[in-house]
Design a protein that fits this description.
By secondary structure, the chain is of the alpha+beta class. It has ten helices and 15 strands. It has three domains: 34 residues, no CATH class; 79 residues, ATP-grasp fold, A domain (Dna Ligase, domain 1, 2-Layer Sandwich); 207 residues, D-amino Acid Aminotransferase, Chain A, domain 1, CATH 3.30.470. The strands form four sheets. A four-stranded antiparallel sheet has the order 1-4-2-3, with helices on both faces. The longest helix has 18 residues.
């Protein structure tokens, strides 16, 4: 705490809890200030609290039904099936329902139903592999998510903490690239107001391979996928906004790309992470925080419509779990002629983890130029000079 005071008049820390009284505790603490004019949220985990507070104060915000869909991957997949958006074949997985996963095509991917980011997401090779790994995955999930705001309600609905097990889908990169990441993926940042959907940015987000774990490597915007897929992405996102309703005015949607279609992986009733926020700002000039404030106040957002400039976000990740001993090479990043921004989330002596327990990178840098060929070459050049040295933790 402390940096908040540079940006706000008052800051209140709300204890993290899985109890249903979280909103009541928040309103009690906020009562010392005054009734808010609007509420905005940057965190996937706190979308439920955002919705509860908006309902309590009678403000614009995500509808409780939208929260259940946008924060529960099982509800989300059924929702997408209802509105004709392709998703992988999937099954609900608890200790009592694993038999329902037997008929899926393998390899498959296991995902916590209410998890954030890619935490605990991993590949299993066959049904027996799922049976072997599931007890440990379940135990870890109960520990990690015990303070998740939807934990109690979700466990009550399914009898215990649930997972999605879905067939592994490929996806292929649909444009020329120098980067060695063959699996095609995009993320779409969008808003909806007064019955219309606006796509603020589509990021190309290719990944290295289909598992065993999944983490973000690079994001580039504007997208280079063919016009047919851009039309599909816009159509699918518009369907989601329309079905969720007026209160769900911000979406972060992830899809795999194929030659003639897209397949949805997930969406969130929220903006993308900090680096995506910066990418949208650098590339399009649209400030998602300003847009969120305007939407929450019931105002039409001020949107920049000038052509987007090619922008690349490269994530920095440690190679192993442990404690950071040294970070070298980052001083070279600002010397690049294409440099626009960089940030380190971790520092020397910080403890870091690798997937499946890892849910974010240790930092990123952003580059901008007139074409992506230049940006990709520069990103790979800088990556060779940056090292995050990690000491393994003593057992």
């Amino acid at each position: 705490m402390g940096w908040e005071r540079f940006f706000v008049d008052h800051d209140v820390e709300i204890p993290e809890t899985a109890r249903s009284c979280a909103a009541s505790r928040a309103t009690q603490l906020l009562g010392a200030i005054r009734r808010p004019d609007a509420i905005i949220n940057f965190s996937e985990a706190y979308v439920p609290l955002h919705s509860e507070l908006c309902t309590h104060y009678g403000l614009i915000g995500p509808d409780p039904a939208a929260v259940r869909i946008g924060r529960n991957k099982l509800h989300m997949r059924r929702f997408c099936c209802e509105i004709g958006i392709p998703v992988p074949e999937f099954s609900t997985a608890t200790r009592g329902s694993l038999d329902g996963c037997r008929s899926l095509g393998y390899p498959a991917v296991v995902k916590p139903a209410i998890g954030c980011s890619s935490t605990l997401v991993q590949r299993v090779e066959n049904y027996d592999d799922l049976l072997r790994k599931f007890p440990d995955i379940l135990q870890t999930a109960n520990r990690i998510y015990e303070n998740e705001l939807l934990f109690g309600a979700t466990v009550g609905e399914y009898g215990e903490f649930p997972f999605v097990v879905e067939e592994l889908i490929g996806g292929s990169v649909q444009f020329p690239t120098r980067m060695p990441y063959p699996i095609g993926e995009i993320s779409v940042e969008s808003i909806a107001f007064r019955g219309r959907t606006v796509i603020l940015a589509i990021h190309d987000a290719p990944i290295a391979s289909n598992g065993p774990y999944y983490e973000k490597i690079v994001n580039c915007t504007p997208t280079r996928i063919p016009p047919l897929l851009i039309e599909k992405a816009t159509e699918y996102v518009d369907r989601i906004h329309a079905k969720l309703g007026a209160g769900a005015y911000v979406l972060h949607t992830e899809m795999r790309t194929f030659a003639d279609d897209l397949m949805l992986l997930e969406f969130g009733v929220r903006i993308g992470g900090s680096s995506l926020y910066r990418s949208v700002l650098h590339s399009t000039g649209n400030d998602l925080v300003q847009i969120l404030i305007q939407l929450a106040l019931g105002e039409d957002p001020s949107l920049v419509t000038a052509p987007a400039r090619p922008t690349l976000i490269q994530y920095l990740v440690p190679s192993t779990s442990g404690r950071i001993r040294a970070i070298s090479g980052t001083s070279k990043i600002p010397t690049s002629p294409y440099y626009v921004d960089h940030q380190l989330y971790d520092d020397v002596a910080d403890q870091v983890q690798r997937p499946p327990l890892r849910m974010r990178a240790s930092g990123y840098f952003a580059l901008q130029a007139d074409n992506f060929d230049v940006l990709e070459q520069e990103a790979m050049r800088l990556l060779k000079q940056i090292e995050i040295e990690v000491l393994p933790l003593a057992r």
